[in-house]
């Protein structure tokens, strides 16, 4: 299953956006309201959306200043959340989040809507959080 957020424009350089997203503590500022959030260490955090189990994400890959990949850390499901950052000009960047996971059809049907809304909210909150 591959889901993409809308592309959002941020009035920051790709380096600033990358720096912000590289600090896992900052993801708390991007989370939807009423989301449980806990930083586990410098590379991982745990969150839980309403009605869904807790999910642990860990920083898996970085390509400064254009890409950061977070992946599932443990648990029964394997997925990744990728932030792609592209420069528009000297003062603006575009950011798009992509969720990619391998789920059985029943599970995919159940989580598609909540995960789509989740990554959309994360993306929409980036311009105001930085």
UniProtKB/TrEMBL annotation:
<protein>
    <submittedName>
        <fullName>SRPBCC family protein</fullName>
    </submittedName>
</protein>
<dbReference type="InterPro" id="IPR023393">
    <property type="entry name" value="START-like_dom_sf"/>
</dbReference>
<dbReference type="Pfam" id="PF06240">
    <property type="entry name" value="COXG"/>
</dbReference>
<dbReference type="InterPro" id="IPR010419">
    <property type="entry name" value="CO_DH_gsu"/>
</dbReference>
């Amino acid at each position: 299953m591959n889901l993409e957020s809308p592309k959002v424009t941020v009035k920051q350089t790709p380096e600033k956006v990358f720096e912000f997203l590289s600090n896992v503590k900052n993801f708390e500022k991007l989370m939807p309201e009423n989301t449980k959030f806990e930083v586990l260490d410098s590379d991982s955090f745990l969150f839980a959306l309403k009605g869904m189990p807790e999910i642990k994400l860990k920083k898996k890959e970085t390509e400064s200043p254009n890409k950061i990949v977070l992946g599932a850390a443990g648990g029964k499901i394997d997925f990744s959340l990728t932030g792609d950052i592209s420069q528009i000009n000297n003062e603006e960047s575009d950011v798009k989040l992509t969720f990619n996971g391998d789920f059985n059809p029943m599970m995919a049907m159940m989580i598609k809507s909540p995960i789509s809304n989740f990554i959309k909210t994360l993306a929409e909150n980036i311009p105001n959080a930085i």
